[in-house]
Write a structure and sequence with these properties.
This protein is an all-alpha fold. The chain contains 12 helices and no strands. Helix 4 crosses helix 7.
């Protein structure tokens, strides 16, 4: 969905109604309300956050889900719920793993916890935190990696809008650390996301 009179990728997001429409014919109908609840929780947690490009942070979370549904054909509701919530443990003082388990189940809570970085430590040693994150993902469920690559792909598509202070470093780290994890699997969805990331990276690096 585009904001009025806007056409830039970073100004797009997936609305509640669009998400419901996409899943109504494909996802488990009994699980659909939980996906929509996750949408509302994510929107609430990120309500006052802005990205470096000035856009609402929640738009990123919604686009990650849009990538998974529209481009990677992911309709597993646990994965989509976790994608919507993949940053909430980092960004909320109220939401805990226990809250996620109670509302969405242990697998969703596991995925979100796996995708959560130590932001306090990252302020002083971001490279070490990122490398630890990569090691964690290497041992994690492929669903964690699906969400991670969809998130990285969305961020790469936003780099032209000054999302990152060091965009070349971000691209290189993505190519060197995360893409090989996907390419080492037999997961065709991961392979697709890896190819899309490489295409976006080539636009910047040439």
């Amino acid at each position: 969905m585009l904001e009025p009179n806007e056409s830039s990728y970073n100004k797009t997001f997936l609305s509640f109604e669009e998400l419901e429409a996409r899943l109504s014919a494909k996802a488990d109908p009994l699980a659909l309300p939980k996906v929509l609840d996750a949408y509302e929780m994510s929107r609430s947690v990120h309500e006052h956050q802005r990205r470096n490009d000035g856009t609402p942070y929640f738009w990123h979370s919604s686009r990650v889900v849009k990538i998974l549904i529209d481009e990677a054909a992911v309709f597993d509701t646990d994965v989509l719920i976790a994608a919507l919530l993949h940053d909430v443990l980092e960004d909320s003082d109220v939401i805990t793993k226990g809250v996620l388990e109670y509302n969405f189940g242990s697998y969703v809570a596991y995925i979100v916890e796996t995708l959560t970085k130590d932001l306090e430590r990252a302020k002083t040693d971001p490279d070490s935190v990122d490398l630890h994150h990569v090691r964690t993902l290497r041992q994690a469920s492929e669903d964690c990696l699906l969400i991670k690559l969809a998130s990285r792909l969305d961020n790469l598509r936003c780099l032209e809008f000054h999302l990152k202070r060091n965009p070349v470093v971000y691209v290189c780290n993505t190519l060197d650390r995360y893409v090989p994890l996907a390419e080492a699997t037999q997961n065709l969805r991961l392979h697709f996301l890896a190819r899309e990331i490489r295409m976006e990276a080539n636009k910047m690096l040439g």
